[in-house]
Amino acid sequence: MSETFRKFLRTLPDFPALLPGFDPENAPADPVELFKQWLDEALAAGEQQPHAFSLATVGGQQPSSRMLILKNIDDDGWHFATSRTSRKGRELAEAPRAAMNFYWPSQGRQVRVAGPVVELSAEASAVDWHERPRADGSDNPNWQLYALQPTEYEFWQASNDGEHVRHRLGPDGNRPG
Ligand SMILES: Cc1cc2nc3c(=O)[nH]c(=O)nc-3n(C[C@H](O)[C@H](O)[C@H](O)COP(=O)(O)O)c2cc1C
Fold first, then answer.
1. Which of 35, 68, 77, 166 could form a disulfide with 149 if both were Cys (CB 3.0 to 4.6 A apart)?
2. How far is the CA of 84 from the centre of ligand 1 (A)?
3. Total Cβ atoms within 10 A of residue 75
4. What is the DSSP letter of 48?
């Protein structure tokens, strides 16, 4: 059975035949600008939720991850929102750092962003809560807007010749040593 499943997995499609190229030398030096460019291109390529990402947090000895929605990027960092009483909320209270991973299959692109996480204000958290599509007007004092402040980025572009491109950047867009 597991042999059948292994072979089945091997038959599944890899990256699409047509992938965009990526030359880090000609990319915007600012990682946020590059991210916004890739997000626009993912949207144009038909990705339904290009602003969805996996968030990994640390709890004791066990990492955990789940999908979230990116809410903004500004001087505070990369924003996301959740309940402080959720597993990730509790883990962030204990260990305030996380890793984000965006994946756009149609483009063969992945963006990894990691660093410390801070809590944004109660006012900003309430605005986010009330802006949800199905908001019913009730408050949620546990809803928290967070900002991840990147210390590392990696922009990854798949290539069908196997020469995948990894573009790693430090906090200010500098290349890490
Ligand atoms: C595409 C997608 C987007 C999601 N966005 C959010 C979000 O922005 N905030 C949130 O709290 N949960 C969001 N969820 C649900 C989370 O993945 C998760 O199930 C929930 O927050 C509980 O996670 P936890 O128990 O690890 O804390 C989303 C799920 C999916 C599939």
1. 77
2. 12
3. 6
4. S
